[in-house]
Amino acid sequence: EVQLVESGGGLVQPGGSLRLSCIASGFTFSSYAMTWVRQAPGKGLEWVSAIVRSGESTYYADSVKGRFIISRDNSKNIMYLQLHSLRAEDTAVYYCAKLSQGTMGALGDWGQGTLVTVSS
Amino acid sequence: IGMTQSPATLFVSPGERATLSCRASQSVSRNLAWYQQKSGQAPRLLIYDASIRATGIPGRFSGSGSGTEFTLTISSLQSEDFALYYCQQYNKWPPLTFGGGTKVEIK
């Protein structure tokens, strides 16, 4: 059974930093591209970042480019998202999600999410 | 690519059919997915490649369309189907883009 478990969320002041983790199990982690998707309170889904299987290529939404860094450790089955220069509008539940095999970008498995709150 | 869902809220009686629409600002071929999200839960993949049901998804859920116009149909609404539904394109990314969602509520 595929499991994705996020952690690392919490309350942080504007301008602060945080590192989110996503621990994967139940599948061959190194064989799948992975993404982060966020959802602000009461709002819709927003794609944040993606990383290819090897970790060599990474992609970001314009809203977080230059502030967030995605990475992965295939030896530990973990994906990370480093959040820097945080703003109030970054407040959201952050989900990690696995791309479905055989599709170009459908997200077949999601974690339960971790809440990031940016407030003074 | 912008994704627009309509209506924002759909009121349906249990047992009735629900039809949700999703429009892309440019062609996404059939590279479109539908997700269901219940309150306090992560989204769940229902449909990918416009019309293929994900593993474990009941047959009452069906997807259709290609290019810029897509439809998710729930043939006979069950109590557990009242939720938020999102479409998402993956034809040209980054970025992956989602529609704003349709909330299906009890009539």
Summarize the structure.
The complex is a heterodimer of chains A (120) and B (107). Chain A is an all-beta fold and 120 residues long.
SSE order and pairing:
The complex is a heterodimer of chains A (120) and B (107).
Chain A: E1 3-7, E2 10-12, E3 18-25, E4 34-39, E5 45-51, E6 58-60, E7 68-73, E8 78-83, E9 92-99, E10 107-110, E11 114-118
Parallel strand pairs in A: 2-11
Antiparallel strand pairs in A: 1-3, 3-8, 4-5, 4-9, 5-6, 7-8, 9-10, 9-11
Chain B: E1 3-6, E2 9-12, E3 18-24, E4 32-37, E5 44-48, E6 52-53, E7 61-66, E8 69-74, E9 84-89, E10 97-98, E11 102-106
Parallel strand pairs in B: 2-11
Antiparallel strand pairs in B: 1-3, 3-8, 4-5, 4-9, 5-6, 7-8, 9-10, 9-11
Please give a structural write-up:
The complex is a heterodimer of chains A (120) and B (107). Chain A is an all-beta fold. Chain A contains no helices and 11 strands. In chain A, the strands form 2 sheets. In chain A, strands 2, 4, 5, 6, 9, 10 and 11 form a 7-stranded mixed β-sheet that branches. A 4-stranded antiparallel β-sheet of chain A has the order 1-3-8-7, with no helix packed on it. In chain A, a hairpin with a 6-residue loop joins strand 5 and strand 6. The radius of gyration of chain A is 13 Å and the shape is globular. The relative contact order of chain A is 0.30. In chain B, strands 2, 4, 5, 6, 9, 10 and 11 form a 7-stranded mixed β-sheet that branches. By secondary structure, chain B is mostly beta strands. In chain B, 0% of the residues lie in helices and 50% in strands. The model of chain B has no long low-confidence stretch (mean pLDDT 96). Chain B is built from no helices and 11 strands. Chains A and B meet through strand 5 and strand 10 of A and strand 4, strand 5 and strand 10 of B.
